[in-house]
Amino acid sequence: MFKAKDNPTYQALGEVNPNAVIFPEFTQAYIGLGVNQKKTVAVYDWNTVVALCVQEHDMKPTEAREFLFLNVISQTNTEDAPIFLQQNPMREIEQFFFM
Questions:
Q1: How far apart are CA 12 and CA 86, in angstroms?
Q2: Cα separation of 53 and 61, whole Å?
Q3: Are 99 and 91 in contact (CB under 8 A)?
Q4: N or C, where is the chain less crowded by C-beta within 10 Å?
């Protein structure tokens, strides 16, 4: 796992929580800092992360969501883990591709 202190893009986060878990492959989806119950962590836009997986790995949106839940979110269950924010839960990821 990558830590905020190791990546200059996440400098502000690294200053507050050097051990915050980050995903450099999702930097385009990074929207800022958030606070869980104990620590300041990275916050990623969920729809953008799914869109990146679709574009980068030739996945369908449903496959990307499943991959993220099984291989990203469930594997980083610590107090330093990022938050994935779905800003508008009513808007489906398919709208990014079929509007």
A1: 22
A2: 8
A3: no
A4: C
Going residue by residue through the chain, which has 99 residues, state the pLDDT in tens, using 9 for 90 and above: 799 998 899 999 999 999 999 999 999 999 999 999 899 999 999 999 999 999 998 899 999 999 999 999 888 889 999 999 987 665 565 565 655
Residue 24: partners with Cβ closer than 8 Å, 6 or more residues away: 2, 7, 9
Shortest CA distance to 87 belongs to which of 60, 48, 59, 57? Answer: 48
Q: What tokens appear for 38 in the block? A: 């104990």
Query: How many other C-beta atoms can be found within 10 angstroms of the C-beta atom of residue 46?
Result: 20
Q: How far apart are CA 5 and CA 10, in angstroms?
A: 7
pTM: 0.84
Residues ≥6 apart with Cβ < 8 Å to 75: none
In sequence order, what E strands does 1-99 have? 2-3, 21-22, 30-35, 40-45, 83-85
Q: Domain spans of the chain?
A: 2-98
